[in-house]
């Protein structure tokens, strides 16, 4: 159990680095295209979709790391099953249709904690982008109403 706690903590630290890289990439993408946020609604949505894609790729990379660890530990026979199990844990769905052995069962909750934290970071970045886009789309109409 102690081994799994240490391993899970190390993987979470690695995932934090990956999340940081994805977040920096997403924010750089956003900053480079921030002018489009101030343009039309469809252009603003295009920027937000790009942001979402980058953040999803970051999450998929983290799920893949967990899946590879599960494979190395001999928990699953195929990468497909390991990745599915990892995605269910990372997203905190907890289906329970594929379970880990008694020996490494602690890694599942650790990955769920990791996923909840990293998805929360992604949500914060998206909330910022949505807030800016909505404000830019609503304010011009509000200014017109005030001027009339």
TrEMBL record:
Keyword Transferase: no
Pfam families listed in its UniProt record: Ion_trans_2
The organism's place on the tree of life at top rank: Bacteria
One annotated GO biological process: monoatomic ion transmembrane transport
Annotated TM spans: 6-27, 47-69
Positions of the Potassium channel domain: 64-131
The protein's name: Two pore domain potassium channel family protein
């Amino acid at each position: 159990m102690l081994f799994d706690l240490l391993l899970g903590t190390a993987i979470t630290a690695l995932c934090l680095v990956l999340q940081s890289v994805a977040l920096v990439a997403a924010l750089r993408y956003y900053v480079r295209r921030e002018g489009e946020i101030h343009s039309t609604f469809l252009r603003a949505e295009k920027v937000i979709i790009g942001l979402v894609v980058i953040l999803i790729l970051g999450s998929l990379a983290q799920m893949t790391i967990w899946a590879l660890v599960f494979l190395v530990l001999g928990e699953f026979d195929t990468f497909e099953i390991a990745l599915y199990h990892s995605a269910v844990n990372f997203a905190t769905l907890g289906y329970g249709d594929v379970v880990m052995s008694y020996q490494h069962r602690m890694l599942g909750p650790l990955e769920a904690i990791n996923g909840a934290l990293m998805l929360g970071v992604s949500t914060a970045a998206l909330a910022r982008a949505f807030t800016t886009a909505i404000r830019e789309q609503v304010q011009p109409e509000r200014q017109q109403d005030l001027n009339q």
